[in-house]
Amino acid sequence: MAESAESGFKVPQDLFYTKNHEWARIExxxxxxxxxxxxxxxxxxxxxxxxxxxxxxxxxxxxFGTVDSLKTVAELYAPLSGSVVEINSxxxxxxxxxxxxPYQEGWIIKLEIxxxxxxxELMPADQxxxxxxxxxxxxx
Amino acid sequence: MKYIPQSExxxxxxxxxxxxxxxxxxxxxxxxxxxxxxxxxYPQAQSxxxxxxxxxxxxxxxxxxxxSFAGCGIYQHEIPSIVPFLxxxxxxxxxxxxxxxxxxxxxxxxIFEFQTLACQLTEMELSNASxxxxxxxxxxxxxxxxxxxxxxKAKILVSSALHPFYREVLxxxxxxxxxxxxxxPLDGNSLDLAALEKKIESxxxxxxxxxxxxxSIENEARIGEIKKTSDALWITSCMEPxxxxxxxxxxxFGADIVTAEGQSFGNKAxxxxxxxxxxxxxNEFLRNLPGRLVGETLDQNGDRxxxxxxxxxxxxxxxxxxxxxxxxxxxxxxxxxxxHMLCLGRQGLREVALQSISKTQYLRRSLSKxxxxxxxxxxxxxxxxxxxxxxxxxxxxxxxxxxxxxxxxLGRFKEEWKHxxxxxVSERHRLEHLDRLxxxxxxxx
Amino acid sequence: MKRFGxxxxxxxxxxEALIFEKSKPGRLGYSLPPLDVPEVQPQDLxxxxxxxxxxxxxxxxASENELVRHFTRLSxxxxxxxxxxxxxxxxxxxxxxKINEELASSFGFGDLHPFWPLNRxxxxxxxxxxxxxLLKILTGLGAVSLQxxxxxxxxxxxxxxxxxxxxxKGQDEKKTKVLxxxxxxxxxxxxxxxxxxxxxxxxxxxxxxxxxxxxxxxxDDSTAxxxxxxxxTLGLFETQLPQIAKRLHEVDGxxxxxxxxxxxxxxxxxxxxxxxxxMHINLHKTFSTPHGGGGPGAGAVxxxxxxxxxxxxxxxxxxxxxxxxxxxEASIGRVGGYFGNFSIQVRALAYLLSIGNDPKTKSPIxxxxxxxxxxxxxxxxxxxxxxxxxxxxxxxxxxxxxxxxLQKSQKLSTQDIAKRLMDYGYHPMTVYFPLVVSGAMLIExxxxxxxxxxxxxxxxxxxxxxxxxxxxxxxxxxxxxxxxTRPDELLAQKKPKLRWLSEESLH
Lengths: 140, 445, 507
Fold this sequence. Notes:
The complex is a heterotrimer of chains A (140), B (445) and C (507). Chain A has 140 residues and is an alpha+beta fold.
C-alpha cells in the first residue's frame, strides 16, 4: 500500500480517486465507493453518514450523501454515474468505521457502473498522492 | 444619548488610534450619493417619562374587558410570581445562544430540564429546545415528515378541525405539496374515524389536533390504532398543553411527531406572541429534527456538563441541506414555561387540569338550560362550542358592551361557522364569573 | 483548584443538581383557590378510558423557594451583556434598555388576546402601525410586515415573496436560482432550500466583498434574485451593491438584503436607495430587545411598495378614527400563529422612539448609534492588528474579523483563543464564521461599550496573543476558571443523553 511521503496517509494502488477525496474500487462492473484516508483525517471524528437508498441513480459528481463530523458536514460526490446496488448498512450505527478503516470496513456504497468510459476521468493512486501532498504542504 | 458611553474626548482619541480624521472617514466605502441626508423626517427622541406617557396613551385607546373567555389557541392562566421575576434576570434575558458551553451552563441545563419535561408531558422520547410557536412547529413537523418520506407521493391527510391559523401556516410551509393534501371530514365536531379508517392506507402523513378548534377531544387512542394499520407518519398538534395534565400524551398512542403551543405555561397572551413551540418526536428521527438540542456529557475533568449537540443538522453547518432554516429557540418563553411547569409539579399540573374540567362542565350544564342554545355532546377539556340563533359576532358585541368577552366567534374564520362561539374556561374563572356569563348570554338572546 | 493567568474570582461555581434529582413527593410550588364548583373527573367526560391520565406527567416536585434558588444559581452560570462586553459577531449584543422591559410589562399589553374584538385591541394595532411607519423611514422601503418571529423567519417571508412576485409575472418556471455570497449566514441557503430555489454561490474577492464582474457573470434569465448581507459577514460594506441591483433588475430579479447587520447603517444609508427590493430586520439585534439566551427574536420584513400585496396578512392600516387589520390580496399566507411577537414589538417601539431626532440638534440619534458601533469596531481593529492577522485590513463597519493565522505556528487555533478569553471574564467572539476565512474570529462590540471597556477587552486579547507565544499550553488547555471546561462533544453524540431518565426507567 502506498503512502504519501510527507503526510503518511494511506493511498492504495488498486483504487481510483476523485479530487473530492472519494475512492472507487472496481469489481466486475461494480464500483465500491468510500472516502480516502486523507479525507477522514481532515474531517476528524465522524459521527454520521447519510446514505442514499438502494436503487437510487446518480450522475457522476452528483451529491449522493453526506458525512458529518462533530462540527462540519462534507458532501459525498459520486465518482461515477450509476445505480446504487448496496449501501453499507453498518455505518448508521458505526460511523467511526470510516475513520478506522476507510478503504475496507468503512466503504459507503456500491454502484453499478453506468458508463465505463468515465473511469478515465478518475485519478490513479500516484496522481492522487501528488494532490494530497500539495494540499498538505499548502496547509502547513 | 444615555445608551452611548463614548465621550467627545474618547471619540477623538479612538479616531487617532485608528488613524483617520473623522467619523465620516469610517464610512468612505459607502458612495456619497447613497448616503442619507443630514436631516431625516423621523419623530423626536423621547425621554423615559415621555415614553411612559406615550405608551399609557396608547393603552388608553381601548378599554380592557373585565372578564374574558377568549381562548382558541391562546389561553390566560395564573402565572406564578416567580416566573417573571426569574426570567427577567439579566443572566437569562441578556445572554445569547449557548454556543460556548463553559459560559452557558445555566441556559443549557434549563433547556435540558425543559426537554425532559416536554417528553414527560407528551410521552415522547425526544424533544428539541423549542421552536417559535405551536403553528410553526406543526409546519416544521410536516416538512420533517415529508423529508423522512422523501420518495413517496402519497396523500397528506389533515383534520378539518384544525385551527384555521394553523391550517394557513401549514399550507404556507407545505406549499410545494398542496396537491397531496386531503382534508378529513368531521363527524359532529370531531374527526370522522370511519372515514379515516378508509383513507389511511393510501396516506403518507396524518395530521390531527386535539383538543381541536371546537375544543373537542379527539379519540387519539383509536386514531393510534387506525394509524398502525398503515405506514403513515402521524403528527399531532395541541394548542393547550394543560390538556396533558388529565389526558395521556400522544406518544402513548404511537404518534411519530408531537407539536404543541407552549404559551399556556408561563407566558401571557401578548396578542399571541412571543410564546414557544413544543416539538417532540421518536428517537429514530433524531437526525431529521429541526431546531436546537442539548445533551448531557462530561467535561475534561469528568464532571457532568451540558452542551448543544447534533448541530450538524442545523443551518449554520449544513446550510442549504439543513433540517430547517431556524436559528432560534424561543428560549426565554420556554424558560417561563419551564419554571411554571416546575412550580406546579405533578400535583399542580393535575389540579389545574381538574379545575379547568370542572369549571368547564359547570358552565356547560348551566348554558344547556338556556333554550335556543345548542351544545355538542363531544368530550371537551377547557373549551367548547355553543351555537345560538345569534351569530358569534353578535354575541361577542353584545356582551362586550357589558365588559365581558364571551369567547371567540368562529365566524371570523369561516362563514359556515358564524353561529358558533368558542368559550374557554380556566382555573382563573370563579363561580361568579361563570354565572355572570350565563346570565348575560341568556339576557342577550 | 489550580489557577492560571489572570486572577478571576470563581463565579459560576455552585454545583446545581438537576431539578429532577432534587424532587421530593408532596412538595408544592403553587397555590390555587379552592374549587368552587362540583368536581368532575376526566373519566366522567366520555373519553376512551385509556386516554385518561392520573400521574401528573410525573413532573418533579419542588417548593417555590427551592425553585428560586435553583434558577438563580443556574442563571449565574451564564455570561450576559449586563455583566460584560459580549463580542459575538453577527449577533449585535447591545445593551437592552430597561425602560423597554418596564413598558412591555405595563398597561395591560400582556393581557391583549389575539381574538378580542378589534375595538379592544387598538393599543396593539397602534403599536404595530407605528413600528411599520418608523421602519419604512429607516429602510427607505414602502411596506412592512411584523409577522415573522425571527431573522431567519423574515428571510423565509422575503424569499417566499420573491417567489410570489415571479409567479405573479408568469416567470416562476424559469426563475430558479438565487445568488448568495459564500460568506453568507447559513440561514440564507437554508431558507432558499425551504422555498425551493437552487443556490448559486458568489465568491468573495481579495478585498472581502463580492466582485462586480463575478456577479454579472452569474446573473442571467434564470436568476430569481440575490440574497446578500450588507454590511457583509466580514464586516465590510458591499460597495458595488447599487450596480449589482441595477443589473439584477434588468433581468427582473429581486434584491434581498439580509438585514442582520443593519446596526451599521441606521441613518447612514437607506437600503431602498441602494436598490434593495426587500429585506428583513432583526428587531432583537438592531432595536435592542433582549436575546433571551437564544430567543425570542422578532423579524420584520420591509419591501418595495409594489410587493406589499404579497406580504403575510394582516398588516395594520389606519383610518381617521381607528386602526384595522388589512388583508393582502396576493399574500404568501400566514407564517406564524398570530400577529408576530408582539411582546418584542412593544420593546422595539420603545427603543425606536428613544433614538429619534435629537431635540436640540435635530440630527438623528440613531445615526450616532451606527457611528459609535463602527468606531468601536475600527478601534479594536487598530488595537489588535499587530497581534492577530486581519484578513481584510481595511476600514470595517460594525464588526471586525480576525484569524488565527499568526497563532498556528504554536499549534493554537481560534478555538483555544476563544476558550482562553473566558478566563479573562469574556464571552468569546463568534468563531469559525464566516467560513471563507480559516479560523475566523468575528468581533462585534456594538455602540454600547465605552472606550475603557474596549481597552480592557483589547488588553485581554493582546495578553492572550503573548501567551500563545510564551505559554501555548496555558491557552490550549483553557478555560481554567470556568465552572466546566471543554465538554466532550463526541461523547455527547456517541452516547446521547437528551433528557433525564429516572433510575427505574434506566434499568
